[in-house]
Specification:
The protein has two domains: 86 residues, Uncharacterised protein YqeY/AIM41, N-terminal domain (Hypothetical Protein Yqey, Chain: A, domain1, Orthogonal Bundle); 53 residues, Orthogonal Bundle (Arc Repressor Mutant, subunit A). Helices cover 77% and strands 0% of the residues. Helix 5 crosses helix 6 and helix 6 runs antiparallel to helix 7. The longest helix is centred in the middle third of the chain and has 24 residues.
Length: 149
């Protein structure tokens, strides 16, 4: 479904001569193809495509401070426009309360007792929140919840 949306948006960007959207979608499609051709040949599903898009978002977020420090306002603006396009493909982010509720639910379901069970909780939680919450934030919430119990 996401692959078809990218194709449709690429055609629309071509028609509208939207160079930013066009270059971002082409870049995402190239990153997807690269990911698919690594190792055994396989086609990415929507979750895999979301991971590729999340990686592209992360790259731009990490580059923004460097561009700002270097006084490259042109690159800062370009990265922000690209981020806006990339974020359109991501599911809406989870709120703090939604994330807390998911953490509590998974901790209860897995029967986790303490920090030693963190890996089991994270393994079950990450596929649910992938693309909707930062992994570092999720990890901190799980750790806090498990040390509190």
């Amino acid at each position: 479904m996401l692959r078809e949306r990218l194709e449709a948006d690429l055609k629309q960007a071509l028609r509208e001569h939207d160079q930013t959207r066009l270059s971002v979608i082409r870049l995402v499609k190239a990153a997807i193809l690269t990911q698919e051709t690594k190792g055994p040949r396989r086609s990415l599903d929507d979750a895999g495509i979301l991971e590729v898009i999340a990686r592209e978002i992360k790259e731009r977020l990490e580059a923004l401070p460097e561009f700002e420090r270097g006084g490259r306002t042109d690159l800062v603006e370009k990265a922000r426009r690209e981020l806006a396009v990339l974020r359109e493909y991501m599911p809406p982010p989870l709120s703090e309360t939604e994330l807390d509720a998911l953490v509590d639910e998974v901790v209860a379901r897995t029967g986790a007792q303490g920090p030693k069970d963190m890996g089991r909780v994270m393994a079950e939680l990450m596929p649910v929140v992938r693309g909707r919450a930062d992994g570092r934030v999720v990890s901190e919430k799980v750790r806090a919840r498990l040390t509190a119990s």
